[in-house]
Amino acid sequence: MGPRFHIRVATLDDIPALHRVIEASVQQLQTNEYTAEQRDGALGHVFGVDTQLIQDQTYFVACPAEQPEMIAGCGGWSFRKTLFGSDHGPGRIPEVLDPAVDAAKIRAIFIHPEWARQGVGSMILEHCEKAAQDAGFRRFEMGSTLTGVALYALKGYQERERVEVPLPNGSRLPIVHMVKQAEDVR
Q1: What is the Cα gyration radius of the chain?
Q2: pTM of the predicted model, to two decimals?
Q3: pLDDT of res. 186
Q4: Rounded to whole angstroms, what are the CA distances from 142 to 4, 16, 110, 116?
Q5: Cα 61 from Cα 72, distance rounded (Å)
Q6: What residues of the chain score a pLDDT lower than 50?
Q7: What is the per-residue pLDDT for 2?
Q8: C-alpha to C-alpha distance for 28 and 9, rounded to whole angstroms
Q9: How far apart are CA 156 and CA 133, in angstroms?
Q10: Under a CB-based contact definition with an 8 Å cutoff, are residues 171 and 38 in contact?
Q11: CA atoms of 63 and 81, how far apart (whole Å)
Q12: Which of 66, 69, 56, 30 lies closest to 131, judged by CA?
């Protein structure tokens, strides 16, 4: 059996480590779906830290039980309208959602390559869904990377549409808008 992980709320002190985890995840785990130009253009724009999630205490890190100072993965959820992106990303809408009518946003799940395919992403996703449900949300949506689509489909998410996000370097990044009803949460 693989290592066990502990999930905790991310802090502002985690930001340098989060940048490293996100960059390693993007540059090593997304090579089959995105070109180097797309990955480079998306880092710090579409892929990156959203400090609003940290300030809202809805962003989490997964740490190996034997190495609590190490971040194996990160991810969160939001009660705000922004669907994806870092502090410098497109489409930032900080307004608060109404759980009675809106879907919580599942946000920015990245796994360090050293810990990939060990259940960390699933664990973070389930933690986020539960936290959003505890806050009254009954639906979830996300802007998934092409890399994440298969996992999220296995977890009950359905594809709604694909969008092409323009990047600062002139490239475009395909993102998949996916949704899920809370009764599908396992």
Answers
A1: 15
A2: 0.94
A3: 46
A4: 26, 24, 13, 20
A5: 7
A6: 1, 184-186
A7: 52
A8: 25
A9: 15
A10: yes
A11: 28
A12: 56
